[in-house]
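Milestone 3.1: sequence recovery, worked example.
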């Protein structure tokens, strides 16, 4: 990395951070704690996806976010009574039902919550991360704008999902976006949150670094879904992290489709007995996309359960790497961790790597993994075409059959429909 570029970045970020006059002092100091050590953070190191030549430090940092509106068709797709919409990291629309607020459910910009719930947030923000941060997350910590804070009081269970839209309007004035979401589920509570990441197409390289933190306390249940369809020139970094307490559960349902480069780091820490987590991912790469996913579930307590399920499709010159890690620490007796990764390649130029890992430090546990990556079955394709289907139709049907066991198992029609729509767009691209 060029030293002069690094210095310029540090100067720009410090200026942006110190300009936040409306923030409480503790939050500004929290941001600066990352900024002061930013030169010590490196971009993620991935064996299959080197980043050295991508010149990420050359992407301009956004200084002022102009006001933009979300396209009407996208906003109208928010078909839930509870929704929040951001455009260029600024809150532009929200609807929180009266019965939610009357029960004490909090849905508000994280920046506002930092002042209103200072004592609580100063202890929670940034505390779910177990593994070291990369430069992408450090930049997010220094530069996220309004953010989103969601809190569900004890024993309150929400029947309807909360939809969250992050719309990016990239332009010559906006080259970087840093959304951040914090979810706190108190004991015995339950909520479903579905986030969508959408942007316009823009010819320049852009930087998108998102952070999601979830804290599920005793017997709390959180289902988090996300579908990413960002610009084909976006360098996308996703960091999702959760802590799960006794008998709680955090279930992830992730769809990754957009961006030129996507680097996702997902980690769930099962810290008390009976904690559970399932991480389900569907991904589809085309063109010259590079997708690299690192998913880890750590068992630190007895009788904890985890599942990692990933299915992806690669076409054209797309490349993917999926590294699943089930980490069972000493003392986590009777832990049960399993994972399965499968990738389908539709062209000879595409490539997929699946690398499952089991780290087991106790004897009385159950752990298993399987992984496969291979081309489309030409015999099955011939059989479908012999029944009157064109090659294009046969491939579409084959892909649907490959992905259906995972996509159709996603909870709720909103998430399923969004994933299938994304799959269709990739097939037509």
């Amino acid at each position: 990395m060029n030293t002069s570029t690094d210095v310029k970045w540090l100067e720009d970020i410090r200026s942006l951070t110190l300009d936040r006059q409306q923030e409480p002092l503790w939050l500004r100091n929290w941001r600066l704690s990352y900024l002061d050590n930013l030169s010590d953070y490196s971009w993620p190191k991935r064996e299959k996806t080197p980043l050295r030549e991508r010149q990420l430090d050359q992407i301009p940092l956004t200084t002022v976010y102009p006001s933009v509106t979300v396209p009407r068709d996208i906003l109208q797709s928010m078909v839930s009574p509870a929704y929040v919409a951001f455009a260029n990291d600024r809150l532009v629309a929200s609807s929180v039902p009266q019965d939610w607020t009357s029960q004490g459910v909090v849905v508000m910009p994280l920046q506002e919550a930092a002042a209103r719930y200072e004592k609580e947030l100063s202890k929670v923000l940034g505390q779910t991360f177990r593994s070291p941060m990369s430069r992408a997350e450090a930049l997010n910590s220094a530069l996220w704008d309004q953010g989103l804070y969601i809190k569900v009081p004890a024993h309150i269970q929400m029947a309807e999902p909360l939809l969250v839209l992050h719309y990016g309007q990239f332009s010559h004035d906006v080259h970087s976006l840093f959304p951040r979401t914090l979810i706190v589920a108190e004991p015995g509570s339950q909520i479903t949150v579905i986030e969508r990441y959408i942007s316009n197409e823009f010819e320049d390289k852009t930087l998108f670094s998102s952070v999601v933190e979830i804290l599920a306390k005793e017997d709390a249940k959180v289902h988090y879904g996300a579908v990413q369809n960002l610009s084909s020139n976006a360098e996308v970094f996703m960091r999702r992290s959760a802590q799960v307490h006794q008998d709680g559960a955090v279930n992830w349902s992730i769809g990754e489709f957009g961006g030129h480069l996507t680097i996702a780091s997902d980690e769930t820490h099962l810290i008390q007995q009976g904690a559970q987590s399932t991480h389900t991912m569907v991904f589809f790469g085309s063109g010259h996309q590079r997708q690299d996913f690192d998913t880890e579930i750590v068992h630190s307590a007895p009788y904890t359960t985890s599942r990692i399920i990933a299915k992806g499709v690669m076409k054209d010159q797309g490349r993917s790497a999926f590294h699943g890690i089930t980490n069972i620490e000493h003392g986590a007796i009777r832990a049960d961790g399993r994972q399965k990764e499968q990738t389908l390649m539709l062209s000879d130029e595409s490539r997929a790597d699946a690398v499952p890992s089991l780290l087991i430090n106790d004897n009385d546990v159950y752990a298993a993994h399987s992984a496969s990556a291979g081309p489309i079955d030409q015999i099955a394709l011939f059989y479908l075409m012999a029944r009157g289907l064109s090659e294009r139709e046969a491939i579409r049907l084959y892909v649907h059959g490959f992905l259906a066991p995972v996509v159709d198992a996603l909870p709720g029609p909103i998430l399923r429909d969004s994933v299938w729509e994304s799959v269709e767009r990739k097939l037509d691209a």
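The chain has ten helices and 20 strands. The first helix runs from residue 3 to 18.
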